[in-house]
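Hey, I'm writing a tutorial for new members on how sequence and structure tokens pair up, and I'd like a real worked example in the thread rather than a made-up one. If someone can provide the structure for the chain below, I'll link this post from the tutorial.
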Amino acid sequence: MTETPGARVASTIARDASRPTHDAALVALRCAAAAVFVAHGAGDLFDAGISANVDNYTGAGIPLPALSAPFAALVQFFGGLALIVGLLTRPVAAGLTVVMGGALIWVHRGESLVMGQDGSGSGYAFAMGAIALTILLLGPGRFSADHVLASWLRQRSSAPVPRTGSVQA
């Protein structure tokens, strides 16, 4: 039985990506997100400085500014670096999701998704939060340090354990 043109189009549209394509897409997503998060985290750590961010967080009414400002800066910078190689991907993505959620709730609440002339707008935090959540849900993929580490740990745990303390007759 031959496939109809409509069925062929539907099959092409609905077909899932191959596993290597899926993993490559996760690398691209991780690296794109990492570039943005590292740039923002570096600005918070090295340009403005943590103390300036604590003051900004205090002024914005963000809870626990002495903890949340350094947390956000460190998670964005070092977490972004970890995303590049796919190391601790899910914990990092969880932290980034929290940071972007906090930005949406305390900094950008009520702002338009479109960035205004004054730099206001929630689009950046919304998009980066959605990307971080996607990475959290999908994981790092096979092209990641997490995958290599997990494979190594699985092999190591399934290797026979040498018996110690046995007396040879």
